[in-house]
Write a structure and sequence with these properties.
Layout (H helix, E strand, L loop, with lengths): L1 H17 L5 H15 L2 H4 L5 H6 L2 H15 L2 E4 L3 E5 L2 E10 L2 E9 L5 E8 L2
Antiparallel strand pairs: 1-3, 2-3, 3-4, 4-5
């Protein structure tokens, strides 16, 4: 019975942690980066809007993502996201560690949470 109570508490705490008020764009950004890290390039495009899907294919995304480690070093941790509002768009910036360097993954979303932009840029 004690193990069941512990399992329920852990399950509830995991649920509460996930429901901490993450914005739809933060969720989409995390899904995108998680899929890229798994090598699931088609899955990485699932939250792209129609224009993004037309302009950035899974194959192109694969080429870009796989070119990063040779340039910057082995993939490390992610820093906490920074989210800003730009008009009707949300912008999520996720600093990524690669070797001794950092780069930023910037994801821009429309109000519906669909990704309208994805950029890899030098860390600011």
């Amino acid at each position: 019975m004690k193990l069941f109570g512990l399992a329920v508490c852990l399950s509830l705490s995991a649920f509460m942690g996930a429901a901490h008020g993450e914005t739809p764009c933060e969720t989409a950004s995390t899904r995108l980066l998680d899929a890229l890290d798994r090598g699931d390039y088609a899955g990485a495009t699932v939250d792209f809007d129609t224009t993004m899907k037309a302009k950035l294919s899974a194959d192109t995304l694969s080429q870009v993502w796989q070119a990063i480690p040779p340039q910057f070093g082995e993939r490390g941790a992610r820093e906490p996201v920074q989210t800003t509002q730009l008009g009707e768009h949300s912008v999520v910036l996720t600093p990524l560690h690669y070797g001794q360097q950092m780069i930023d993954a910037q994801v821009t979303c429309a109000a519906d949470g669909k990704i309208t932009g994805f950029f890899i840029k030098p860390h600011h």
